[in-house]
């Protein structure tokens, strides 16, 4: 193809187009110079660069003085000009415009000073879009910030009694403490002292399909939490508890629940049904078989000032049963300067030398200062959370059979946890089936404990025969020195602990401890954890069940004390004043709700 030569440009101010050359196209372009291109003539015009690729020397030599005088620059740029470009024949090239000639698409890339202002005018559609976005943003702020803030400061969200009065929640069905389904022959019990004890509470679990979610039952409630006190493998939920075929049934299943691998149940009578002293028994069928190692069934009691599973309520309270004001109430059971006692600084703990206690100290001793939130009845009454274990089931490897660990947990501690130094302080009734528990404590508790072999009939994998477990205790409320605790397995006495086991300990410089005077609530649970005993995973099956045929509580005539808020050891006002601590399972210590520990006369009022 022939190369295109540089073209000579001819600018004409004539209004009539020049005569066409044969074979060429000479269209007439008539346009107005945009304001942005209007410039005054300059002597440097010849040096302007156009949008074409014509060499500068060619452009400069293509115009005469007469051409420049007739150009749009010299005749006024606001006039309408006509430019007639000189064209070569069609075979020689294309149209080439004057450097200042306007092109039809100039408006696309040459900004004007007088921009069309319509582009920035608000429109109904634009206003609607902006308004919609603002509404959505405000709704999100209200949802995730506004409502939580309002709920935090509005007490109406927690006024359960008011909602009940207004009929917004169904009242709990009323039922007397003694279950009408309890056979009349069991309304009394013959005590070891020859007196006839009276039935003060019972539950036969005869009604089919009972559930134990909050508000379902006047005396029981299923827990809905992770039991981090013993680092269990399961999550407790009321869904695992019901009544079936005339029995209470707790089912443990291998179900992923709240990042745990198992789901099970814990039933509590906390703040609903409590008692001080008496005899309690239950008829039970245990999970697995006599040699199945891994399940952790429990039937126990705890002082009502502590709610099981809510660690902030037990911090500084469990398992204190102490009425003195000495080193026994201090953190770690040591002096304020941590100089002793020697037995507390260097104790035998799990086969090694370590400090005796890691407890935070007793929160409400008998010498609590005034104005420290003491539960009552006055700051001179020691308050704590004792624990009585009717049974915790484990496998005795030496015997090759299941045993019931039956214990009383106490604090402060004896030197090296040796509560049994005084042989006359406890009694075992049948040494063939009962023996002292070789484990007697750790840095968080001292356990006055014995273990008793369980009959083979008591398990789900054998004959499923309900077996009676019980405990009888006298809290010695009058301080006569006649307190005791007696445990039962299969309806027979297994062992008894007397007050001598709670005497003062010279080595740790502590005084006498007491039997549990606090109102005690009842707990039933089926757990699984490696801290209690090693789990033999190849021996356990899921789902696993534990069944209770009945629970009954008896007390001596004229000594009926069935209340969670007795006058000598009240709990209601303290619980109501610390609702967050008792209903928030995520709080793990008293410091979560208070910046200072309650003061006592030993630390300074």
TrEMBL record:
The cross-references to InterPro entries, in alphabetical order and at most eight, read:
Beta-glucanase-like, ConA-like_dom_sf, Skn1/Kre6/Sbg1
Q: Where are the transmembrane segments?
A: 127-150
Annotated localization: Membrane
**Where does the record place Polar residues bias?**
25-35
From the UniProt record, which GO molecular function terms apply?
glucosidase activity
Q: Which CDD domains match?
A: GH16_fungal_KRE6_glucanase
List all Basic and acidic residues biased stretches: 11-22
Biological process, per Gene Ontology: (1->6)-beta-D-glucan biosynthetic process; fungal-type cell wall organization
Give the similarity note.
Belongs to the SKN1/KRE6 family.
Q: What is this protein called?
A: Kre6-glucan synthase subunit
């Amino acid at each position: 193809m022939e190369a295109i030569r540089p073209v000579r440009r001819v600018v004409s101010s004539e209004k009539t187009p020049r005569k066409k050359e044969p074979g060429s196209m000479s269209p007439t372009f008539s346009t107005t110079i945009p304001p942005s291109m209007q410039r005054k003539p300059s002597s440097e015009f010849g040096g302007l660069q156009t949008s074409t690729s014509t060499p500068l020397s060619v452009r400069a030599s293509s115009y005469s003085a007469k051409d420049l005088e007739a150009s749009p620059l010299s005749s006024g740029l606001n006039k309408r000009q006509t430019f007639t470009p000189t064209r070569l024949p069609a075979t020689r090239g294309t149209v080439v415009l004057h450097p200042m000639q306007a092109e039809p698409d100039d408006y696309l890339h040459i900004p004007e000073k007088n921009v069309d202002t319509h582009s920035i005018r608000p429109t109904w559609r634009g206003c609607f879009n902006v308004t919609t976005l603002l509404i959505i943003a405000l709704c999100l702020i209200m949802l995730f910030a506004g409502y939580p803030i309002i709920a935090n400061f509005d007490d109406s969200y927690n006024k359960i009694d008011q909602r009940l009065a207004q009929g917004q929640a169904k009242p709990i069905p009323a039922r007397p403490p003694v279950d009408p389904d309890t056979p009349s022959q069991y309304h009394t019990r013959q005590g070891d002292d020859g007196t006839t004890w009276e039935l003060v509470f019972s539950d036969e679990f005869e009604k089919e399909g009972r559930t134990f979610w909050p508000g379902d039952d006047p005396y029981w409630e299923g827990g809905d939490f992770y039991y981090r006190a013993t680092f269990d493998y399961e999550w407790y939920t009321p869904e695992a508890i019901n009544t079936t075929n005339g029995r209470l049934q707790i089912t443990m299943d291998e179900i992923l629940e709240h990042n745990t691998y198992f789901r099970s149940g814990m039933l509590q009578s906390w703040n609903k049904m409590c008692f001080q002293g008496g005899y309690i028994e239950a008829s039970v069928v245990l999970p697995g078989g006599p040699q199945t190692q891994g399940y952790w069934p429990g039937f126990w009691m705890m002082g009502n000032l502590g709610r099981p599973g809510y660690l902030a309520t037990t911090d500084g309270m469990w398992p204190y049963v102490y009425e003195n004001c000495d080193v026994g109430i201090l953190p770690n059971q040591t002096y304020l300067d941590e100089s002793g006692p020697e037995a507390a600084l260097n104790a035998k703990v799990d086969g090694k030398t370590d400090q005796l206690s890691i407890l935070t100290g007793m929160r409400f001793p008998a010498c609590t200062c005034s104005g420290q939130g003491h539960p009552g009845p006055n700051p001179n009454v020691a308050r704590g959370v004792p624990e009585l274990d009717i049974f915790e089931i484990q496998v005795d490897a030496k015997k090759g059979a299941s045993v019931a660990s039956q214990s009383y947990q106490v604090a402060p501690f004896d030197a090296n946890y040796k509560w049994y130094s005084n042989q006359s302080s406890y009694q075992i009734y049948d040494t063939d089936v009962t023996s002292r528990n070789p484990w007697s404590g750790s840095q968080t508790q001292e356990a006055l404990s014995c273990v008793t072999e369980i009959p083979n009939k008591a398990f789900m994998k054998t004959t499923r025969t309900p077996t009676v477990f019980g405990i009888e205790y006298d809290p010695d409320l009058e301080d006569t020195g006649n307190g005791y605790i007696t445990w039962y397995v299969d309806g027979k006495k297994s062992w008894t602990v007397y007050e001598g086991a709670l005497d003062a300990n010279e080595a740790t410089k502590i005084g006498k401890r007491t039997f549990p005077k606090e109102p005690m609530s009842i707990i039933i649970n089926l757990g699984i954890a490696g801290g209690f005993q090693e789990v033999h995973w190849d021996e356990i099956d899921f789902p696993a069940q534990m069944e209770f045929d009945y629970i009954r509580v008896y007390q001596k005539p004229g000594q009926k004390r069935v209340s969670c808020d007795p006058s000598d050891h009240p709990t209601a006002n303290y619980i109501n004043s610390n609702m967050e601590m008792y209903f928030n399972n995520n709080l793990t210590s008293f410091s979560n709700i208070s910046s200072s520990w309650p003061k006592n006369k030993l630390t300074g009022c």
